[in-house]
Amino acid sequence: MAAKKLLILPGDGIGVEVMAQVRRIIDWMAKKRKIEFDISEGLLGGAAYDVHGTPYPAETLEKALAADAVLLGAVGGPKWDDLPFDKKPERGLLGIRKDMGLFANLRPATVLDALADASTLKHDVVAGLDIMILRELTGGLYFGEPRGIETLPDGTRKGFNTLVYTTPEIVRIGRVAFELARKRNKRVCSVDKANVLECTVLWREEMIKLQKEEFPDVELSHMYVDNAAMQLVRNPKQFDVIVTENMFGDILSDCAAMLTGSLGMLPSASLGAADAQGRRKALYEPVHGSAPDIAGKDMANPLATIMSFAMCLRYSFDMATEADMIEAAVKAVLKGGLRTADIMQPGKAKVSTTVMGETVVREL
Amino acid sequence: MAAKKLLILPGDGIGVEVMAQVRRIIDWMAKKRKIEFDISEGLLGGAAYDVHGTPYPAETLEKALAADAVLLGAVGGPKWDDLPFDKKPERGLLGIRKDMGLFANLRPATVLDALADASTLKHDVVAGLDIMILRELTGGLYFGEPRGIETLPDGTRKGFNTLVYTTPEIVRIGRVAFELARKRNKRVCSVDKANVLECTVLWREEMIKLQKEEFPDVELSHMYVDNAAMQLVRNPKQFDVIVTENMFGDILSDCAAMLTGSLGMLPSASLGAADAQGRRKALYEPVHGSAPDIAGKDMANPLATIMSFAMCLRYSFDMATEADMIEAAVKAVLKGGLRTADIMQPGKAKVSTTVMGETVVREL
Ligand SMILES: CC(C)[C@H](C(=O)O)[C@@H](O)C(=O)O
Ligand SMILES: CC(C)[C@H](C(=O)O)[C@@H](O)C(=O)O
To answer: Please, are residues A287 and A263 in contact by the beta-carbon 8 Å criterion?
Structure first.
């Protein structure tokens, strides 16, 4: 079997530190499980701007397109806050998502037993939570044209963006949702605002049609986005798979992530269309950001990025055994009482990023 | 003093029942406090469609424009779900908001001591919560043009809406936010997605300018909408006034409402621009919807609508004493142990809509 081509983009802030721990896991896999990785590194976001004057160097895209999978840390930080809109670190992230065609963003929100009390929600409301938010990632308001800021003849300024989806864009994300649900509890809740936005009227119509034609075995329900935000707080366990457009998905997945009380634990996968061999372009990253306030202090939680690597093994390389091993090791370490600062609880042992990474490797 | 012209729009579902309880309070005010109300009733939403074939009869708008204030129950229900987009009950609500120019939607999220345990969040996270979400209500995606669904030459369909704000729209809602904050804790958090959407880049720029020029005594901070959804769950008490655009406000205010655990308790006010006499067009409604599942069962919680009437007295008629009286009566009734089904807790007495309304009047 050919070596697995992995591109690592540590990015900014704690991205660098947490990725260093993933490197340990990769080294272990290479040595102990004889898995050949062909690893390259690249720059994205503020780190890329500092070197190349752009958050999104052509070289990085080239490497990403050549890789079997990309691992990303996080981008952004106050250092780059005053840059013009098109130089900000976020442009790098949005650019690579778009150019790699990563339209399907999988954001599981799960609560591990050991961490159920870390949530601000009552124990019973979140214990055992295991939902999947599927966010459309390359359409909608994020990329719609026309967009911009204009000055009108009377001096007034006008800012505008376009929310737009076509049927193929809706159908392809719908398919991913139904396929995910088939491997879970066979329920998809499509979130829209079809009582107000025509764009999401189309979204709802296409979801209904798709379910009827291709996925009659999966249950489909619909919910308005405002109600979905409520229901996530009221009773998150009612959901199995939630599928929604880009902007709604950004908001709801962060809300869901916070329900778990341990943002530092949550991985994500962004997938493109399947090619003839069934392979998808893919990028894996933690749900948390670059956390500039704790960057460089060896305090960040590396587990979300480590779990993102597990997702990578599972989805891109079909290595379920190895993915399971990593997830089991993470659970064991938590059960053993080790905690980074973000998930610290009374009676547990507070450890650094490095110690957490080393301990996961030892557990493996 | 001239009689206060009040238009009552019970709307659909539980709207009718809860409004009947408000009528009791109004009668009491007229009789015991010698306040003259000139009351008319009108139809909006499904109820209007059933009679006039439109959710938004011209007559209703006429009455609304002639009134000093409008009280609304709620609109919508499955009965009208299959109507075409432009006949749905929601069109009535959106139409009246737009035509009355109600650009400022005040949605307080408060937790009364007696109900702090009703939340799915831990007691300490929400006890004493008192934040104000100010939602822009007549702009953004809800009303932006162009909008619609188009069929392209190749048969693909495309759905689109426009997110658009002009400087005057941003400035007028900003002013309301800063003025509200001056009467509270002098902190405004403006929520946007300025790292992605140009429209909200303009929003942020205008908020910064406005604060510098007119409200240097109020603190202004900015937060991305995804982070705001997280922070509401993590630590809602960090906020004082949140100001945001229409769609974000819809989502965040419902999320915040659910934090309180008692949606049936939350009022809202929608205000227009002040005229030369400082009077604003105004509509008051509960945050909850028409709740078709419990409609007609005398089970609904009338307190949100009663509290909306208190807001009406306070904001439209400058009757702070009477507004305080209503709010005190509601607190006393809850302290006395009465609960409608939605806020029922062990050891309390479950009562009907009618009994709740009667008891508030008795308490007055
Ligand atoms: C950094 C930002 C552009 C990004 C987004 O909005 O998509 C982030 O919030 C995310 O959710 O991955
Ligand atoms: C019914 C609907 C059109 C309305 C809105 O989205 O504004 C409602 O959700 C609200 O928040 O008042």
So the answer is: yes
Tell me if B192 sits within 8 A of B224, measured CB to CB.
Answer: yes
**Can you tell me the distance from the alpha carbon of A32 to that of B55, in angstroms, rounded to the nearest whole number?**
68
Catalogue the E-assigned strands of chain B. 4-11, 37-41, 69-74, 104-110, 130-136, 148-151, 157-166, 187-192, 219-224, 241-244, 267-274, 280-286, 338-339, 349-350
pLDDT band at A168; cut points 50, 70, 90: very high
**Of B211, B231, B259, which residue is a domain's last?**
B259
Query: Do B120 and A122 count as a contact with CB atoms less than 8 A apart?
Result: yes
CB of A93 sitting under 6 A from ligand 1: yes
- Segment A258-297, tens digit of pLDDT: 999 888 899 999 999 999 888 899 999 999 999 999 999 9
DSSP letter for each residue of B88-113: SHHHHHHHHHHHTT--EEEEEEE--G
Q: Among residues 272-301 of chain A, which lie with CB inside 8 Å of chain B?
A: none
Atom 5, ligand 1: which residue's CA is nearest?
A: A250
Does residue B56 belong to any structural domain of this protein?
yes
Asked whether residue B216 falls in the same domain as residue B284, the answer is no
Average pLDDT over residues A52-81: 96
Same-domain check for residues B137 and B254: yes
Bridge partners of residue B161, in order along the sequence: A163
Q: Which among A231, A235, A255 is the nearest to B230, CB-wise?
A: A255
Same domain, B308 and B284: yes
Torsion of CA A90, A95, A100, A104, to 10 degrees: 50
Whether A185 and A236 share a structural domain: yes
- Give me the mean pLDDT over the A173-191 stretch: 97
Contact B195 A161 (CB under 8 A): no
Tell me phi and psi for residue A275, to 5 degrees: -85, -175
Pairing, β B104-110 against β B219-224: unpaired
Domain boundary among A238, A259, A280: A259
Q: If pLDDT is split at 50, 70 and 90, which confidence band does A1 have? A: low
Is-contact B304 B71, C-beta < 8 A? Answer: no
Mean pLDDT, 10 residues at a time, chain B of 364 residues:
90 96 95 93 97 97 96 94 92 97 97 89 95 98 98 97 98 98 97 96 98 98 97 97 98 95 92 91 95 94 96 94 96 94 91 96 94
Q: Of A142, A203, A255, which has the smallest distance from its Cβ to B233's Cβ?
A: A255
Do A275 and A254 fall into the same domain?
no
Q: What is the pTM of this model?
A: 0.96
| Nearest bound ligand to the CA of residue B283 | 2
For residue B274, what are its two tokens?
């002040």
Other beta carbons less than 10 A from residue A277's beta carbon: 6
- Domain match, B135 and B147 both: yes
Q: Nearest-CA residue of chain A relative to B229? A: A255
pLDDT of residue B113: 86
**More confident position, B263 or A154:** A154
Q: What is the DSSP letter of A181?
A: H
Site from A158, A233, A260, A287 to mutate, B interface, most B CB atoms within 10 angstroms: A233
Of B90, B122, B255, the CB nearest to A230: B255
Domain that holds residue B189: 130-259
Q: Which CATH number belongs to the domain containing residue A171 in this structure?
A: 3.40.718.10
C-alpha to C-alpha distance for B108 and A233, rounded to whole angstroms: 18
pLDDT for A224-263, tens place per residue?
A: 999 999 999 999 999 999 999 999 999 999 999 999 988 8
Q: Are the C-beta atoms of residues B202 and B165 closer than 8 Å to each other?
A: yes
Residues A136 and A195 in one domain: yes
Is B95 touching ligand 2 by the criterion CB < 6 Å? no
